[in-house]
Amino acid sequence: MVKGKLILICQSGGEFVSDADGTLSYNRGEANAVNINQDTPFDHLKIKLAEMCNLELKTVSIKYFLPGNRKTLINLRSERDFKRMVEFHANSVTAEIFVSGKEGFDHEALNTYTDRTIGLKLAENVNHHGTPATAADSGGLSITPSKAMPLRTVHTDAASPIAIQSDCLVDVHISCQEPAINATADSSSQATTSSNPFSGHVAEDDSDYAPRSRAAVGTTAQSPISFDYDSTPADTVKKRRRTASWTIGANGPTIVVTGNDSKEKISRKKKSRSSTGVMDSNDTVEDEDYVQLPDDSDSSSAVALRDEDLPEKLVATWKEGITGVGQDFKSVKEFRAALQKYAVANRFVYKLKKNDASRVSGRCTVEGCSWRIHASRVPAAQTFRIRKFNYLHTCGGESWKSGHRTRNWLVSIIKERLRDSPNDKPREIAKGILRDFGIKLRYRQVRRGMEDAKEQLQGSYRKSYNRLPWFCEKVVNTNPGTVAKLMINDEKILQRFFFSLHASIHGFKHGCRPLIFLEATSLRSRYKETLLTATAVDADDGFFPVAFAVIDIENDDSWRWFLQQLKSALSTLQSITFISDREKNLKNSVLEVFENACHGYSIFHLLESFKRNLKGPFSGDGRNVLPEIFLSVAHAVRLGGFKNSTEKIKQISSHAYDWVIQIEPECWTSLLFKGQHYNYVTEDVAEPYSKLIEDSRGSTIMQKIEALICMLGDLIDHRKLESSNWSTKLTPSKERKIQEEAVKADGLKVLFSSNVLFEVHDEMTHVVNIENRECTCLEWKQSGLPCCHAVAVFKSTGKCVYDYCSSYFTVESYCSTYSVSVNPIPGIGAPVEEDGESDTADVLPPCPSESQIEEKPEETKTVDPDKRTVSCSRCKEPGHNKASCKATL
């Protein structure tokens, strides 16, 4: 599909015939072609097809084949089906659709879709009768009809809008050149237009759909009005300021043309707000007794919203929410919600005169209107029943024009959208509300509305903390061997919560190296909690979650508590190497809790910090090569290599050299570090957790915990299945490493000194001790896998290389890591009950401190570590160049 466009070949009037192999073919009938794109609304396409094929709109049925499948027809019934079809044909130029239905197109249906005029060329593309467009005399509004239609002229004063009405369809050409407006036509006929200002043959243009726009008011157009399906949204915005205003009402289009009066010149900002017909959300008036709805009162500057503008599924459901006297609801809350949606769907505003738990009475906000409703509680049936209902309005819809929206209405709209698309972002929802309701909302308003909507759908975030004690008991019962601990203060506010599943504990103790990465990730909620994680590395260098904790404040005390719980869960005397971000200062806490442990600094965080701290001036190859040299310092196994790399850094930047030396090389370099080899891990260990939390940002604390458990369960099941097909002794990554060393070993000369010691001659002579599993190149001891010199010895002696590999890298160890699965926890994902337990909360969410709130601007500030620093070539100082240097040399 080129540039998002797709050509639909519309087949109609024929029939399907099945071939011997089940393939379907379409015989007879006729074909038409229509251009669509990803922004084309399904309802607009449907009415275009009905019009083109002369079918009754309500009976139209559309089907299509999947690419490469001519045996099964797929129904096309909704906007979602349509988007899916476009996606299926993303790599196609054309697609076949098959249209059927009852013959006879109802032209009155066009009145429902008058907004299709936005996007059509009314001048060139509509006149299919070959009649050239004729303009009126000097200036004014010219209407050029088709010769096939009778005409009727409507004369009007230049200062007033032209309201053009008709009972039939004609082709029109409209141009606005002067403030004075005249409508002229051939003397032999009368001018006329329709509420739908385009011909029934418009589908033949095969034009693309462009998003709806509203024309500007208060501007003078100097060129014919032309709305083009091929135009982009940017083009449409530009045209708003140079075209006449169109207002689509019940009687057809109203064209408003204003002269070039200097008094009417306004700023672009004000013009935009008035011409788009949308209302800023700051104008909301909050009142519990008023149901406030969108404003369409300015009929001269906006396309009036119609029922068809509302989402189809919502309107169909909401209009049937109130049926009449005797209708029962489960509660007063359900009745209020149904009444509010009913009012939105039927476009009126009501006021509640009585509104309590036992009775609700409402009337239309317009004085004298006959619409009334009264409902009350039925104690015997435990329901809420409509007692009186007068559904007729005598106000002519005036209440809708003066109504505004409430937060509850916004939440109900967002909730319906989240049911269909749970992963929609605030900006996507805001665009949808603007498109469907004509209401422009700010990002913050939509985000808050989403929080309330998700709370209604998923349960209260605050109340979900009350389920933590239940979870601690349930997870231990369903997964014996699991450790879960909860710590709250005297006011029942959460301070710390720790859990480590039995599957993680068993996997670490039986299959992983004694190496754990410590990380912290924000839970991205209003309560500012932090997620602490302990992550191991499996035999194939994959990350393996071991333990989690949710804390109120990240500090030395909370980290020490987390390490104490981790030590209790693992209950091992084995020396463990812990790796953390140097800037968190966890070294003392780790060595205090785990007496025989080793502590190192994360290479990922060190490298990021190194980039941030790079300051000029730079010499030689410049700053771009410094990160690579820094890694060579970390991986150097000999003193000579370490000094050589650090000297290179010094030659480029003395400041960078000083920074490298002062960050304790014994805690991160291969040369000096005494713990498990780890510094080849340069990835962000916390990234999977951060992504998971971001994807579940609006979820409750229990749902986030459930997501972590599901992530671990899926990881174990996937890797267990994957490893069941492995046939090698070592895991795939380690097997590749051994094969690479075997290639290097070819051609090396081996001399026997004893049964244990061997000399291997390469460019240098190395001594291999197979009993101690050492080589003077130091790579064997460092990595746990035989180096090329050792592999050469094994080839010469006939020994098996796998017998000298670390057991931590075998497939057996890998399978042991993932041998225990996570048992499901029934009820963990259940929404929080809204009634009954709010007054007896066992656990309350943390209270973020002022410092946590104040730190937010600093967290959003980003620094580009690769941004070039200007330095002076004269004085060698950063921050200026030679031309502006003021130093005295």
From TrEMBL:
Residues 766-798 form the SWIM-type domain. The keyword Endoplasmic reticulum does not apply. Pfam families: DBD_Tnp_Mut, MULE, SWIM. The keyword Metal-binding applies. Residues 283-298 have a biased composition (Acidic residues). One of its GO terms (molecular function) is zinc ion binding. Residues 853-880 have a biased composition (Basic and acidic residues). SMART domains: PB1 (SM00666), ZnF_PMZ (SM00575). Keywords: Metal-binding, Zinc, Zinc-finger. Residues 184-233, 257-304, 829-889 are annotated as: Disordered. PROSITE patterns: ZF_SWIM. Residues 184-195 have a biased composition (Low complexity). This is Uncharacterized protein LOC104217215 isoform X2. Transmembrane segments: none annotated.
